[in-house]
């Protein structure tokens, strides 16, 4: 009887010790979580703005994330939808981030539980999402949800960064964006990749048809941000001397170059070459072949 009573006292004492220790451990974890400071970049309810811009070739939705950068949903003719962020400051280090939905305080719909891993890259364009992820993010905003990117700070792993897209004032710009998407032509990069402008005999000036071609090409080039190089190659037919034909082909290439610059194409993207009669498209001495050889070829690279 005495043994049982002592055993009971020991057991009771042990249980009290466990009860006293557990809350201390739990509170310690809460303290560590609270110490993880969060830096949030997001537009407030009264400063959230979504802007739409579009043309015959491109459609874009823009949203400023204060102190972080400019977010854009973008699609050009013949290409898929994509999402990108241009930051105000260069990103110093590549990190992984989680893309998720977050419900704003006024939204009672449960957010999508799907989380997607994406990468924040170094430089001035840290984030670029492909069609599937961009579409998922766009759908989240149409539901009134916040699109949120969460990752550890580049310089301090005890600090988290949240970059969020506000759904406030989204719907009107989104309706304009959708209407623009429906009107985009199917012609895209493969159609403009190699453009050829033809010239009359012994002529280097651009005619009406050539200018129309170059207008369309310039509009596409300025819309496609992936284009990083443009090669302009001048050619001539076999009539006249070699030296004269080489100078003629150079003038033709130069006229095309200058016209594209006038239409907004960056001159740094363009490189000129001229070959005279040395690289005919059709190696024959017929009028049809010579007409085909009097040309400038513009090649685009991504």
Task: Explain what you see.
This protein is α+β, with helices and mostly antiparallel strands. It has two domains: 40-183, Sandwich (Immunoglobulin-like); 189-301, OmpA-like domain (60s Ribosomal Protein L30, Chain: A, 2-Layer Sandwich), CATH 3.30.1330. The chain has seven helices and 14 strands. The protein has helices at residues 2-35, 131-142, 171-183, 189-192, 208-223, 242-262, 287-293; strands at residues 37-41, 50-54, 58-65, 69-76, 82-87, 95-102, 116-120, 127-129, 146-152, 159-165, 194-198, 229-234, 270-274, 295-301. The strands form three sheets. Strands 1-10-9-6-7 form a five-stranded mixed sheet. The longest helix is centred in the first third of the chain and has 34 residues, at 2-35. It starts with a helix and ends with a strand.
Q: Which structural class should the secondary elements be placed in?
A: alpha+beta
Oligomer: single chain
* Count of discrete domains: 2
The shape, in one word, is elongated
How many strand segments? Answer: 14
Strand content: 25-35%
Named at the architecture level, the CATH assignment of the largest domain is Sandwich
CATH hierarchy, class of the largest domain: Mainly Beta
């Amino acid at each position: 009887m005495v043994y049982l009573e002592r055993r009971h006292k020991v057991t009771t004492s042990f249980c009290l010790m466990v009860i006293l220790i557990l809350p201390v451990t739990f509170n310690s974890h809460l303290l560590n979580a609270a110490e993880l400071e969060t830096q949030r970049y997001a537009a407030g309810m009264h400063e959230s703005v979504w802007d739409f811009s579009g043309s015959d070739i491109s459609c874009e939705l823009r949203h400023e994330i204060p102190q972080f950068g400019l977010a854009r949903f973008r699609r050009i003719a013949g290409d898929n939808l994509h999402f990108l962020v241009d930051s105000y400051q260069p990103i110093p280090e590549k990190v992984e981030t989680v893309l998720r939905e977050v419900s704003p305080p006024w939204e009672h719909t449960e957010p999508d539980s799907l989380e997607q891993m994406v990468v924040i890259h170094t430089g001035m364009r840290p984030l670029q999402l492909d069609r599937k992820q961009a579409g998922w993010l766009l759908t989240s905003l149409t539901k009134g949800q916040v699109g949120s990117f969460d990752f550890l700070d580049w310089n301090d792993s005890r600090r988290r960064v949240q970059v969020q897209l506000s759904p406030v004032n989204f719907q009107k710009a989104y309706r304009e964006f959708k209407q623009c998407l429906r009107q985009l032509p199917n012609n895209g990069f493969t159609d403009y990749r190699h453009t050829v402008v033809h010239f009359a005999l012994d002529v280097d000036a651009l005619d009406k048809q050539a200018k129309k071609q170059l207008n369309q090409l310039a509009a596409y080039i300025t819309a496609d941000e992936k284009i990083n190089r443009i090669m302009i190659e001048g050619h001539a037919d076999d009539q006249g001397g070699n030296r004269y034909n080489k100078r003629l082909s150079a003038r033709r290439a130069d006229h095309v170059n200058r016209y594209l610059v006038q239409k907004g194409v960056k001159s740094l993207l363009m490189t000129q070459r001229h070959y005279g009669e040395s690289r005919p498209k059709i190696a024959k001495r017929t009028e049809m072949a010579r007409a085909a050889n009097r040309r400038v070829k513009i090649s685009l690279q991504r």
